[in-house]
């Protein structure tokens, strides 16, 4: 028996193209709304980021300024900063750009 | 330049049978074969604005080959166990025709071929493309294709003779 003898020609199920047409017709509406949805989502995200950007940027700037300040105090070759004979335990950059120095309370 | 609905239909009518025969020798299931054929044509239809109608046959075959590879790879990971013959009503020696037997022998033999050899053999049988076109579609050299085909036929012949005896 030759190999070709095993490969008989099969007939696909009838109505294949009609089923394909129905499937394509179903997927077409999705095709139309999908790009609109994608554009709308992208635009919404862009607007949200634009609205939040000033707030986020201010927070970022404050953090950066604080980090710079800390670096200056940590790296400066000068005697430790003393206030009333005490070393501050914490520094804080306040909203009005004033640096607050926190001291240990006096022991009773 | 774009693919029209008429060109799509003509391509479907022309290629459905050879593609179905190609896929059936991978999956042995009419429903799976039709789904994959429809997947391939749907993909092309979605890109219809950029498709050259003169290249539709090669594009359908490329898409079918890729879909078949993916489906076959998934099937290897999720292999379903066949129902016992008593439940399916098939493979009953009394009702089994010679064709069923031949198909089962062929299936067993094809399953033992390496996938690239099986692919080349089935494309040569059903794609109706020249050797150069098949080599181009598979992205292999013509020499590689010829060697794979030669090995596949020799191995398949051996396996079929073994099952006949």
UniProtKB/TrEMBL annotation, chain A:
Entry superkingdom: Bacteria
Keyword set, alphabetical order: Membrane, Transmembrane, Transmembrane helix
Annotated TM spans: 33-56
Stated name of the protein: Uncharacterized protein
From TrEMBL, chain B:
Domain RNA polymerase sigma factor 70 region 4 type as annotated: residue spans: 104-156
One GO MF term: sigma factor activity
Transmembrane segments: none
Keyword Cytoplasm: no
Keyword annotations of the record: DNA-binding, Sigma factor, Transcription, Transcription regulation
Domain RNA polymerase sigma-70 region: 12-77
Keyword Transcription: yes
InterPro entries cross-referenced by the UniProt entry: RNA_pol_sigma-70-like (IPR039425), RNA_pol_sigma-70_dom (IPR014284), RNA_pol_sigma70_r2 (IPR007627), RNA_pol_sigma70_r4_t2 (IPR013249), RNA_pol_sigma_r2 (IPR013325), RNA_pol_sigma_r3/r4-like (IPR013324), WH-like_DNA-bd_sf (IPR036388)
Pfam family, one: Sigma70_r2
One of the GO BP terms on file: DNA-templated transcription initiation
Domain of life: Bacteria
Assigned protein family: Belongs to the sigma-70 factor family. ECF subfamily.
Protein name: Sigma-70 family RNA polymerase sigma factor
Organism: Wenzhouxiangella limi
Native organism taxonomy: Bacteria, Pseudomonadati, Pseudomonadota, Gammaproteobacteria, Chromatiales
């Amino acid at each position: 028996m030759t190999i070709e003898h095993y490969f008989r020609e099969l007939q696909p199920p009838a109505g294949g193209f009609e089923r394909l047409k129905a499937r394509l017709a179903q997927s077409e509406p999705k095709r139309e709304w999908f790009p609109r949805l994608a554009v709308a989502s992208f635009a919404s995200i862009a607007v949200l980021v634009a609205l939040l950007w000033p707030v986020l940027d201010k927070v970022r700037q404050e953090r950066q300024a604080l980090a710079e300040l800390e670096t200056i105090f940590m790296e400066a070759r000068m005697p430790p900063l003393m206030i009333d004979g005490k070393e501050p335990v914490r520094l804080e950059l306040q909203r009005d750009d004033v640096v607050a120095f926190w001291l240990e309370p006096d022991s009773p | 330049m774009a693919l029209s609905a008429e060109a799509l239909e003509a391509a479907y009518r022309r290629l459905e049978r050879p593609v179905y025969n190609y896929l059936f020798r991978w999956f042995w299931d009419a429903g799976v074969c039709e789904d994959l054929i429809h997947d391939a044509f749907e993909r092309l239809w979605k890109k219809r604005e950029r498709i050259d109608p003169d290249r539709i046959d090669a594009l359908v075959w490329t898409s079918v080959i890729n879909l078949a590879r993916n489906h076959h790879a998934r099937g290897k990971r999720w292999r379903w166990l066949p129902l016992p013959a008593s439940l399916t009503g098939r493979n009953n020696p009394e009702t089994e025709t010679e064709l069923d037997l031949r198909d089962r022998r062929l299936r067993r033999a094809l399953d033992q071929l390496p996938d690239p050899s099986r692919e080349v053999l089935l494309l040569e049988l059903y794609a109706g493309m020249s050797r150069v076109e098949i080599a181009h579609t598979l992205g292999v050299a013509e020499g590689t294709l010829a060697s794979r085909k030669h090995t596949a036929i020799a191995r398949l012949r051996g396996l079929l003779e073994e099952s006949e005896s």
